[in-house]
C-alpha cells in the first residue's frame, strides 16, 4: 500500500513540474532609467534603448536596498529594476528595486604633466 502511494505521489509531482514552470513564462525584468512617472505607472528606458511601461499596484514591493520605500519617492532619472508578468508590452510589477544614487563623474584633471 505504501509503495503504491509513493508511486502515485511521484507521478503527480512529475506531472506538476511543467505546469509550475510555465506559470512564470511571461515574467520579464527590465533594468533602466525612469523617463516618466504617471501615478502608479512608470516608463522605463532599458539598456536596449526601448521604453516599457511598468504598472505598479498596492501589492508591488518597492525597495531601495533592504528598505521598503513609497512609490511617491520614484522620480524621472532614477535607475530601477522592475520585474513581473508581461502582457501587451507592459510589465505588471511585482517588485521594483531602486538603485543607489548616481555618482557624478570626476572632472578631467587640468594641468596634467605630459612627457
Q: Which regions are unreliable across 5 or more consecutive residues at pLDDT < 50?
A: 19-23
> Could you give the order of the helices and strands?
HEEEEEEEE
Helix content: 10-25%
In CATH's first tier, which class of the domain at 27-98 applies? Mainly Beta
Tell me about the largest β-sheet.
Answer: 5 strands, mixed, barrel
What would you give as the CATH superfamily of the domain at 27-98? Nucleic acid-binding proteins
Which sequence of strands runs across the widest sheet?
Answer: 1-2-3-7-6
Radius of gyration: 22 Å
* Number of alpha- plus pi-helical segments: 1
Ends distance: 88 Å
Secondary-structure arrangement, i.e. CATH architecture of the domain at 27-98: Beta Barrel
| CATH topology description of the domain at 27-98 | OB fold (Dihydrolipoamide Acetyltransferase, E2P)
> What does the overall shape look like?
elongated
Provide the descriptors you would attach to this structure in a database record:
1 helix; single chain; alpha+beta; 115 residues; 18% helix; OB fold (Dihydrolipoamide Acetyltransferase, E2P)
Description:
The protein is α+β, with helices and mostly antiparallel strands and 115 residues long. It has a domain at 27-98: Nucleic acid-binding proteins (OB fold (Dihydrolipoamide Acetyltransferase, E2P)). 18% of the residues lie in helices and 39% in strands. It has one helix and eight strands; from the N terminus they run αββββββββ. The chain has a five-stranded mixed β-barrel. Strand 4 (61-64) and strand 5 (67-68) form a beta hairpin.
Amino acid at each position: 500500500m505504501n509503495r503504491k502511494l509513493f508511486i502515485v505521489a511521484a507521478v503527480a509531482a512529475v506531472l506538476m513540474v511543467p505546469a509550475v514552470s510555465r506559470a512564470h513564462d511571461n515574467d520579464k525584468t527590465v533594468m533602466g532609467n525612469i523617463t516618466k512617472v504617471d501615478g502608479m505607472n512608470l516608463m522605463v528606458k532599458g539598456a536596449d534603448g526601448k521604453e516599457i511601461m511598468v504598472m505598479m499596484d498596492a501589492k508591488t514591493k518597492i525597495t531601495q536596498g533592504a528598505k521598503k520605500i513609497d512609490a511617491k519617492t520614484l522620480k524621472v532619472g532614477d535607475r530601477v529594476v522592475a520585474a513581473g508578468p508581461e502582457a501587451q508590452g507592459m510589465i505588471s510589477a511585482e517588485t521594483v528595486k531602486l538603485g543607489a544614487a548616481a555618482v557624478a563623474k570626476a572632472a578631467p584633471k587640468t594641468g596634467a604633466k605630459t612627457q
